[in-house]
Amino acid sequence: MASATYILWLRSVKRYFRSRSRMFGSLAQPLFFFFALGFGLSNVVSTSNGSYTAFIAPGIIAMSVLFSSVFSGIQIIWDRQFGFLKETLVAPVSRISIMLGQTLGGATTSIIQGCLIFVLLLLIGSLKISFGILLAFLFMALIGLSFTAMGIAIASRIEDMEGFPLIMNFVIMPIFFLSGALFPLTNAPSALKVITYLNPLTYGVEGMRYALLGSSSINPLVCLSVLGGFGLLMVFLGAFLFNRIKA
Amino acid sequence: MDAIKIEGLTRRFDDLIAVNKISFNVKQGEVFGFLGPNGAGKSTTLAMLSTLLEPSEGKAHVNGFDIKHRKDEVRKSIGMVFQDSTLDEELTAWENLDLHCRLYGVPGELRAKRILDLLKLVELEDRKDSLVKTFSGGMKRRLEIARGLLHEPSILFLDEPTLGLDPQTRNKLWDYIGKLNKNKGITIILTTHYMDEADKLADRIAIIDRGKVIALDSSANLKNKVGGDVINIETTDPEAVQKFVEKCKFCKEAKRHDGKVTISTDHAEKKIPELISLAEKNKVKIISVSINKPTLEDVFLYYTGKTIREQEASSIEHLRERRRMHSR
Ligand SMILES: Nc1ncnc2c1ncn2[C@@H]1O[C@H](COP(=O)(O)OP(=O)(O)O)[C@@H](O)[C@H]1O
Ligand SMILES: [Mg+2]
Questions:
Q1: Which of A13, A76, A132, B76 could form a disulfide with A155 if both were Cys (CB 3.0 to 4.6 A apart)?
Q2: Regarding the domain with residue range B228-293, which homologous superfamily does it belong to in the CATH classification?
């Protein structure tokens, strides 16, 4: 069981490092958001303390982890399309161990992706090195784990590639835009506030913000427990749905 | 013990019966051919036998293990080469094999040697570190066969092993498959819709059509059941030949047309010496002799009233018909 989980984790990591275009492609998008919004809106949005670019920096890291992890999760759709899924399903190992390997692989690569963005933001000067990095790392791990598992849960229910743009437009994008990554929650209209508080990514973004900037509008312990709970729920849901997947 | 025992195995997809109460046994150590047109239910049967798909009805034992209740044991007993590739093309050949070893719990100290041995067997050891996406169709097939053998299964399933391959590669694969069976004693179950493939490789053949097994025997017996061989004799004096042939006891029927005599009989190759000596005795000159033996195509035609190609062309039609019948 551990052996199957390990080898599927290793497979994800190997594939990640082999696909340079995917690696750089998924760096470009968060950076694009960072520059376009950071410099475009810095005079429009007022943040309580610090610059707007610093304010969105943790959100941009969370974004890259989110995208990369959901992509890793729905890799299963490709695995089904290209046949590899069957190789794992017909093996004498539990589906849970396969799902866990995929989840840990996705979490690992999305943390790497988040760290790359983090380093770039350090170099640009929008973030500073502090002990909070360790806490930020924990939040990245939780975001990565939760959303890879969510990707697996979704992919287990989708039969073909056509579902993919739907996931992009109706799941990932709203999760990102309604997470408080780009705007301060304090001045948001109350309807938006409610939605944002229901969005699990919000707790990741706020937690990262606390870790990297030293202040957040949600208590970091609340962030940790909500995100941790959501992660656990997603892993269970992903395992449950993957267990019922049809070859 | 039989390698596989199937009793009344059935699979429905909504109102379509893809596999319809099939029953047969596969003996240990034999190459068993599962021959039928596209859509006959071959892959669905293999999916059930490999525990990927739940049967709607019926029972089956693979290597003595019930496919419903002893899934892991069944999975360890079989090597599976699916109709479509299930390799990870972004990994190298070696990595694909290593992954398989770990999924099947092959002990660490045996892995490298086994991988290398099998890569040699399928003549891919010099490409072991190439990404699979750079492989040709034939190389991928060979790699998949090697992979299927890594955990030393006693039964190997091959679903349309030479589909879409060029004739040269097919011949080579046939050699591998034959050798595997002979040298390693592995029971092989292969599905195909190629008559020649079943004929060449299989000890016994089950012909499946529209979800039902309609005939099962060795290729020779299947053909004999359909009818005997035909001997064509080209001669300068067909009338004389017909005359003496009709008198001999083995001949069922002798017909004459444009300078030739055609004789229906069994075991034609054994009758030829006798015919030649008869011709000499009667002082008739024979120009040439040829034998036509019934093919599996004739067997299929005999049982279904259609050639396998016609059956494929009309399978969509049948599908609709069957759906209509069931929805009533
Ligand atoms: N997952 C499925 N859902 C619905 N119908 C299926 C499914 N798999 C196979 N079938 C149908 O079952 C029949 C048998 O298919 P299959 O076993 O693939 O045939 P073969 O392998 O002999 O070509 C076909 O009519 C096919 O369309
Ligand atoms: Mg098939």
A1: A76
A2: YebC, transcriptional regulation domain (3.30.70.980)
